[in-house]
């Protein structure tokens, strides 16, 4: 089950990004006007980093909560945060990976693109980690509910 979830999630992240990148590489004119400036990219990355920190805190709160009903509520909030983060990341795809194409790009342009791509990949890895942790706490909570039913 976990393997299927992880594989599906990876495909959801990788395919749109790859398609966007491939479209920009094969048809540079389509990417023009859609690129994210360094300042906008930095702001988006800062928002994503703040959201990731928020999700880590949510996960810590979930793990420290023993009441299964309270955990369910916290898990729902965490899931919503993950969905919002994935939506934000999908909006980053073109700007992060398929920046504006120009004739005679400088090495700095390529380095900036590579750095953005690396940042986006780091964010995807962190999201995958959050999903795995979320699945673990859901299973733990299910066991707590079962334990509560047995001892009533």
Please tell me what the overall shape is. Answer: elongated
- Helical content class: over 70%
* Average of per-residue pLDDT values: 74
What are the secondary-structure elements, in order, as H or E? HHHHH
Largest sheet: none
Structure description:
This protein is mostly helical. It has a domain at 40-77 and 120-152. It contains five helices and no strands.
Task: Name its key features.
152 residues; mainly alpha
Q: What can be said about this structure in brief?
A:
With 152 residues, the protein is mostly helical. The protein has five helices and no strands.
Chart the SSEs and their pairings:
Layout: H1 2-26, H2 28-31, H3 38-63, H4 68-97, H5 107-150
Helix pairs in contact: 1-4, 1-5, 3-4, 3-5, 4-5
């Amino acid at each position: 089950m976990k393997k299927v979830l992880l594989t599906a999630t990876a495909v959801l992240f990788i395919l749109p990004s790859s398609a966007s990148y491939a479209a920009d590489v094969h048809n540079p004119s389509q990417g023009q006007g859609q690129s994210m400036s360094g300042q906008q990219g930095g702001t988006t990355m800062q928002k994503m980093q703040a959201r990731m920190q928020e999700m880590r805190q949510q996960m810590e709160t979930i793990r420290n909560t023993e009441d299964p009903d309270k955990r369910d509520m916290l898990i729902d909030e965490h899931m919503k945060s993950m969905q919002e983060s994935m939506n934000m990341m999908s909006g980053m795809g073109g700007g992060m990976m398929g920046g504006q194409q120009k004739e005679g790009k400088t090495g700095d342009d390529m380095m900036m693109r590579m750095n953005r791509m690396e940042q986006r990949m780091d964010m995807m890895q962190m999201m995958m980690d959050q999903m795995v942790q979320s699945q673990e706490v859901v299973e733990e909570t299910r066991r707590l509910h079962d334990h509560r039913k047995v001892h009533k």
